[in-house]
Amino acid sequence: MSLEALKSAVLEANLSTVRSGLVTATFGNASGIDRATGTVAIKPSGVPYEEMTADQIVAVSLDGAIIDQRLRPSSDLATHLVLYRAFPEIGAVIHTHSTYATIFAQSMVPIPPLGTTHADYFRGAVPLTRHLTNTEIGERYVEATGDAIVEAVGDRDPMEIPAALVAGHGPFTWGRTPAEAALNALMLEEVARMAWCSMMLRPGIRPISTELLDRHFLRKHGAAATYGQLGDET
Ligand SMILES: O=C(CO)[C@@H](O)[C@@H](O)COP(=O)(O)O
Predict the structure, then answer these.
(1) What string of DSSP letters covers the chain?
(2) Catalytic pick from 55, 68, 157, 227?
(3) What residues in the chain have per-residue pLDDT under 70?
(4) Which value does ipTM take for this structure?
(5) Per the domain annotation, does 234 fall within a domain?
(6) Is residue 227 part of a domain?
(7) How much is the pTM?
(8) Atom 7 of ligand 1: nearest residue by CA position
(9) Is residue 148 part of a domain?
């Protein structure tokens, strides 16, 4: 992929979070990676979305060295880089402060799989990170945020659980492409809102069974997926 194409895809992912109502002001940030070159493209820090252009997207290497920069990169860059290094399958990362997912993050509650809508995108509860230590906060806050996300995902397949809630902060999602990461961010907010309302309507509500969760997730994901169309049969 050319750097221009990567920057355009990353710009579109950033703008899609605004169109979807997932971010306000300059909150959030989206990035993408070209695994062939190890180039990461990310939103510039603090730039209003309505003014953002593709040539303002910042390009860095996986170790954070600047490749192409007119503006300073997102202040969350180090978190994105930790995730790209830990999860080689992913091609994009999105951070938002979307309302309901952030309510769960601030309230220190993982998002439980209460229905098949959740199961269509997340194979289990959306994990919550631990709180960072004062030393981490003081010395390596942004990178430690990424470390805490990787710890929260643990030995689960990051492509089966493409999201995590940072305690006291907000959600991060990822995917194979910027567009897929943006869809996962949108669906995370949707299932968070459904979960919150379901938990209010029925306190003590229990998650769906593992059998139903897996049946629905595998219906859309993996080699045996039966959802949608095969190849170019449309
Ligand atoms: O996490 C936060 C703020 O808590 C960020 O999403 C927000 O400040 C956006 O920062 P950037 O504009 O990406 O540097």
Answers:
(1) --HHHHHHHHHHHHHHHHHTT---TT--EEEEEETTTTEEEEPBTT--GGG--GGGSEEEETT--EEE-SSPBPTTHHHHHHHHHH-TT--EEEE---HHHHHHHHTT--B---SHHHHTT-SSPBPBPPPPPHHHHHH-HHHHHHHHHHHHHTTS-TTTS-EEEETTTEEEEEESSHHHHHHHHHHHHHHHHHHHHHHHHSTTPPPPPHHHHHHHHHHHSSTT--SS--TT--
(2) 227
(3) 231-234
(4) 0.94
(5) no
(6) no
(7) 0.95
(8) 27
(9) yes
